[in-house]
Known about the structure:
Elements: H1 2-8, H2 12-20, H3 26-33, H4 43-47, H5 54-62
Helix pairs in contact: 1-2
Amino acid sequence: MKEIATRAGIDNSYVSRTDYLTTLAPDIVAAILDDTLPNHITMFDLAVDPQALWHEQQARIDGSTPAGGH
């Protein structure tokens, strides 16, 4: 990650957060691409402290699990 950040001239933490987006559930990715993600959810919300399980990611978006909650 550090090498990618250095080559791209960006902050290492940004690369790490962006990398987390690759583990999002397919329905969440589709909502991002279709611009149907709820307005209260930002890309930053999804990239910080992401849940590993897809159903937990969806619960976070639905508002039934606090950020970082498992």
